[in-house]
């Protein structure tokens, strides 16, 4: 009798390189992980599941998958995976922690430049027939203070890229040593100092109970009224309601936002401000990042299902 191949469920659109890297040893299926009923049904007899950020692998999903051995997150953040429930069920969780960091850092720079020069707004206006040169006059990044909250892999790449513009980088990160900050040519400051002094504040933290709402009313009150805030990390790190109020009251100049508390979100109140630039969770959406993420998790799934050790990336 032929032994059935282990089943790998792909629950979100991944790079074609993922399937190639998995090779011929698995039965590969796909489902729409954002469709809860479809997901729970599809998990019934799978050995591994591959997800991005739209699939919630919580305790319920994990218990719907009695044969599951590995959950693979084709990206960095693990906030959509219940690690505790997975561990209790003996399910290994792997991610691709360096796959999309360059893409995330580059999108951050894109948001900062968009805010400084009103590129999306001016483009939309011009396409609508309006030639508005003075309305969309902007600011230079040169000699401005950029505040980076979270100087991890992505934050450090953002710092290096923005230094090319002649900016000064301030960072708040309780886990970074002064030696590391000096090596990156970054001034480590307290969160309050960062908020008071920065012209652009960008957050690069994971989503945890401690970081949710980290940029809220108190933070906006400390910021310059000419400052911009950027969130390409996780929805909710910047409080969406407080952001709307801060913009209404003119406490800050604008915001660049790629991630939202609820995704998809297409009509949040703060979208109404012309000084807000939004993108639909595109931080990792490049060909390069998706290929790296897909290949990296495919390799980890192969090792995990073969009962071998999965090395840290
Ligand atoms: C991540 O955590 O890596 C990003 O959110 C990317 C993604 O969702 O694919």
From TrEMBL:
<dbReference type="GO" id="GO:0006564">
    <property type="term" value="P:L-serine biosynthetic process"/>
</dbReference>
<protein>
    <recommendedName>
        <fullName>D-3-phosphoglycerate dehydrogenase</fullName>
        <ecNumber>1.1.1.95</ecNumber>
    </recommendedName>
</protein>
<comment type="similarity">
    <text>Belongs to the D-isomer specific 2-hydroxyacid dehydrogenase family.</text>
</comment>
<dbReference type="GO" id="GO:0051287">
    <property type="term" value="F:NAD binding"/>
</dbReference>
<comment type="function">
    <text>Catalyzes the reversible oxidation of 3-phospho-D-glycerate to 3-phosphonooxypyruvate, the first step of the phosphorylated L-serine biosynthesis pathway. Also catalyzes the reversible oxidation of 2-hydroxyglutarate to 2-oxoglutarate.</text>
</comment>
<keyword id="KW-0718">Serine biosynthesis</keyword>
<dbReference type="GO" id="GO:0004617">
    <property type="term" value="F:phosphoglycerate dehydrogenase activity"/>
</dbReference>
<keyword id="KW-0520">NAD</keyword>
<comment type="pathway">
    <text>Amino-acid biosynthesis; L-serine biosynthesis; L-serine from 3-phospho-D-glycerate: step 1/3.</text>
</comment>
<keyword id="KW-0028">Amino-acid biosynthesis</keyword>
<keyword id="KW-0560">Oxidoreductase</keyword>
